[in-house]
């Protein structure tokens, strides 16, 4: 808790409102909230099926798939940004085809921010949902199957309600991680105000010329992250008795 206490002690409280009133702060905060939310939605669409495959299927290579999905947890974020650039950049494996065929360029755009945040944050969702699926009682799914429900109906009406606390926990962690993403974003998307400059990038830029402004921006991120984790956990997870 000492680093958090250091922020509170050294914060320029008298300059808090003037610093927050600056247009670039509002732009960075708005972009951070929107991009983190979009990254979480993409992670839900992709991560929940992947978690189900890891937890319930018997296909070969599950351990390899799990390692590939969770490698961003241990991979330096800047390396992830370089990897994304080599794949989706204008001369990348897929990026060259996108540019030549559709005249689409992904790096240094808001889309690149969402992709970078999804790459870094989705493993938190996958791990949480996989754990919830493994802990859920599969007998309810077996009972639904014996009553004639197909796989999709069983997943939608039985499995998802069982693992809803795990999905909520994973989504919250994914959102918070995406909100604080820095390395992959600055490498793959750059640092352009209003387009790719999220709050962490704004903090980094302000730290070089305006340390007090960097502290104020850090306080905003700290407040948003703590409020989100505490409020969502109390409302969604606390009632379900999900383990912490």
Plain-language structure description:
The chain is mainly α. It contains twelve helices and no strands. Helix 9 runs antiparallel to helix 12. The radius of gyration is 20 Å and the shape is globular.
Summarize the structure.
This protein has 244 residues and is mainly α. The protein contains twelve helices and no strands.
Strand proportion, as a percent range, falls in under 5%
- Rounded to the nearest angstrom, the radius of gyration is 20 Å
Q: How would you classify the helix and strand content by structural class?
A: mainly alpha
- Annotation field: number of helices: 12
Distance between the termini: 20 Å
Q: What's the SSE pattern? A: HHHHHHHHHHHH
Average pLDDT works out at 88
Number of strand segments: 0
Low-confidence stretches: 239-244
Largest sheet: none
- Share of residues in helices: over 70%
The outline comes out as globular
Which descriptors would you attach to this protein?
244 residues, mainly alpha, 12 helices, 0% strand, globular, disordered C terminus
């Amino acid at each position: 808790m000492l680093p958090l206490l250091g922020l509170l002690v050294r914060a320029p409280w008298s300059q808090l409102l003037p610093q927050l009133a600056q247009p670039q702060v509002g732009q960075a905060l708005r972009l951070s909230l929107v991009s983190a939310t979009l990254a979480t939605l993409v992670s839900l669409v992709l991560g929940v099926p992947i978690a189900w495959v890891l937890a319930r299927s018997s296909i070969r290579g599950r351990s390899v798939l799990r390692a590939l999905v969770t490698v961003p947890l241990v991979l330096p974020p800047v390396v992830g940004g370089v990897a994304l650039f080599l794949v989706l950049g204008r001369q990348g494996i897929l990026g060259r085809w996108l540019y030549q065929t559709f005249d689409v360029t992904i790096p240094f755009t808001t889309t690149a921010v969402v992709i970078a945040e999804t790459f870094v944050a989705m493993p938190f969702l996958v791990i949480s949902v996989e754990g919830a699926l493994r802990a859920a009682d599969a007998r309810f799914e077996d009972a639904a199957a014996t009553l004639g429900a197909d796989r999709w109906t069983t997943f939608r009406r039985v499995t998802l309600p069982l693992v809803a606390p795990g999905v909520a926990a994973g989504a919250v962690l994914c959102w918070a991680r995406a909100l604080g993403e820095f390395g992959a974003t600055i490498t793959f998307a750059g640092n352009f105000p209003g387009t790719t400059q999220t709050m962490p990038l704004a903090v980094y830029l302000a730290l070089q010329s305006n340390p007090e402004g960097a502290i104020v921006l850090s306080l905003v991120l700290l407040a948003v992250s703590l409020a989100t984790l505490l409020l969502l956990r109390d409302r969604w997870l606390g009632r379900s008795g999900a383990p912490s």
